[in-house]
UniProtKB/TrEMBL annotation:
InterPro entries: AAA+_ATPase, ABC_transporter-like_ATP-bd, ABC_transporter-like_CS, ABC_transporter_ATP-bind, P-loop_NTPase
SUPFAM superfamilies for the chain: P-loop containing nucleoside triphosphate hydrolases
Protein name: ABC-type nitrate/sulfonate/bicarbonate transport system, ATPase component
Start and end residues of each ABC transporter domain: 6-244
One matching Pfam family: ABC_tran
Key words, A-Z: ATP-binding, Nucleotide-binding, Transport
A GO molecular-function descriptor: ATP binding
Length: 263
């Protein structure tokens, strides 16, 4: 984990026109560096600006000031469209195409990226294998459970072989049991694919299971980074038994205190 894939320098974001009553300052001077193959989690209370930050990072929204460097290139306030193919996105509501099968949803992504040929067809199978859905290639979204649909969303985000996986509360719409199961699966997918992952969540346990580093955002707008936490729990300890791990419990208590004290 050596190369810096992102260098984010004093990013701020406001919505609404300058000097008007409708202007909302959402993000104030956030800076961070993200290393290749890291799993970074942005943690914060509802409405604090997590998604806004992620959208700037993923080139969906421009920043109002500051600059973003990606793969050694400074793109100023907005990552251009042609760089977006380097990212794979998963949102809370997976936005699968209802009229396409599992396989068809992955193929749609490849069509959008103009990626054709046998190697890409093989990649669809490979990704469905990684998320454990190879047997569900021909099913339509309505024939799958919520957790399975979200796994299709993850496979689709990975199929064009992006450098970075951007996850915006990917487990937020799931029931508690499915949410927990899928969080272990995301960990396995990360281990297998070795992608850089940036994930937004408001769930402390999920953040501790998955992250190398956690950035906690302050709850009052404009948000900024209130804490940066290195999650020094070995990867071998990150499984169903993590709740018995001493470091997990120490960090959990510490982060819960931070989150409670900033409400
Ligand atoms: N396009 C927009 N125009 C105006 N205000 C916006 C826009 N997008 C977001 N906001 C405001 O920015 C703030 C942060 O929103 P954001 O969705 O980033 O928060 P969040 O932390 O991701 O919330 P949640 O966890 O509830 O999804 C909110 O007050 C929201 O109303």
């Amino acid at each position: 984990m050596e190369n810096k894939i992102f260098r984010i320098n004093r990013i701020s974001k406001s919505f609404g026109s300058e000097n008007s009553d409708s202007k909302v300052e959402v993000i104030k001077e956030i800076s961070m560096e993200i290393l290749e193959k890291e799993f970074v989690v942005i943690l914060g209370n509802s409405g604090c600006g997590k998604s806004t930050f992620l959208k700037i990072l993923g080139g969906i929204l421009p920043a109002s000031s500051g600059n973003i460097e990606f793969n050694g290139k400074d793109y100023g306030q907005e990552i251009p469209r042609d760089v977006l193919k380097k990212f794979g996105f998963v949102f809370q509501n997976n936005n699968l195409l209802q009229w396409r099968t599992t396989e068809g949803n992955l193929r749609f992504m490849l069509e959008m990226m103009h990626l054709k040929g046998e190697q890409w067809t093989a990649r669809i199978d490979e990704m469905l294998d990684i998320v454990g859905l190879k047997a569900y290639k021909k099913e339509y979204p309505h024939e799958l459970s919520g957790g399975m649909r979200q796994r299709v969303g993850i496979a689709r985000a990975l199929v064009h072989n992006p450098d970075v996986l951007i996850l915006d509360q990917p487990l937020g719409a799931l029931d508690a049991i499915t949410r927990k199961m899928l969080s272990y699966e995301i960990l396995n997918i990360w281990k297998k694919t070795q992608k850089t992952v940036v994930m937004v969540t408001n769930n402390v346990d999920e953040a501790l299971l998955l992250a190398n580093r956690i950035f906690v955002l302050s709850p009052v707008l404009p948000t900024t980074i209130s804490h940066e936490i290195q999650v020094n729990i070995p990867i071998t300890a990150r499984d169903e038994n993590i709740y018995e791990n001493q470091r997990f419990n120490e960090l959990r208590e510490m982060i819960n205190d931070i989150v409670r004290s900033t409400i």
